[in-house]
Amino acid sequence: MRNYNEKRERMKFVRTWAEYIKRTPNSIWSKQYVMFINSLMKSALQDKEIYFKTHKINNKN
Amino acid sequence: MEIEFKDKEIQLKRNITDLDNFVFEMIKIIEKHTKYVIISGYIAILFGRTRGTENVDMFIERIDFETFDKMFDNLIENDMWCINGSNKKTMFKLLEDDLAIRFAKKDTVIPNFKIKFIKDMYSKYSLDNKIKVILDGEELYTSPLEMQIPYKLELGSEKDVEDALHLYVLFEKYLNMEKMKEISKMLKVDLGVLYEKL
Fold first, then answer.
1. A24 neighbourhood in chain B, CB within 8 Å
2. Res A55: pLDDT
């Protein structure tokens, strides 16, 4: 669990990032953004059994 | 960020992610069979928030079994699979019980589309007042931001509150604040966190 200061720091970062992308050309901010989002997608664990367990999905196949 | 905002339409220019391509692929199939609206985390990501997500949440208009049957087959023909199961009657019953069913690309589980039927006045409001987002020539429909921001605050986790703040900072000058306050009141959420000096 994050403490109050950590939460404020996170919120400050979120605000700073949103303000940064508002004033920055796409060619700069969205290149970094795409690399980040794509790397998260690529590293996602594609194990069905673990997914069923963690999401309490009772697969009805 | 290059954004053009007018009435119920947002034109957005940015590079496309693999997640966006997955979303475009899914909605092209879904919209052949029913009306939809995308809600929650993907909206913040769509508008530049840097975080991961396992699923894209979507409400669809209630449909009968015959239409669902066709939509399900259409998804399977396009290399998707239903994570909850393959028995269409059982999957339809889950939707009718206001539960979600999830579809992903074959041999994967993440990302997936979490689909639910419209169930209450808030989901109906999102569908009836959806906004069109045009990204790289592709169109998709999302919940109005005046609904989405209070809804995220109501969910209340750190991630959700951060999503709300991201959208608020980005669209501050375009938001209908009266409408957002009205919705916040109905949802009993405090917008104060959005204005807090950090």
1. 1
2. 80
- What is the residue extent of each domain of chain B? 15-124
Contact B158 A24 (CB under 8 A): no
Look at B166 and A18 and tell me if their CB atoms are within 8 Å: yes
Closest chain A residue to B198 measured between Cα atoms? Answer: A12
pLDDT tens profile A13-59: 999 999 999 999 998 999 999 999 999 999 888 888 888 888 877 76
Q: Which residue has the higher pLDDT, B195 or B113?
A: B113
For the domain covering B15-124, report its CATH number.
3.30.460
Sequence-ordered strand ranges (E) for chain B: 2-6, 9-13, 36-39, 55-60, 80-82, 101-105, 112-117, 131-135, 138-142
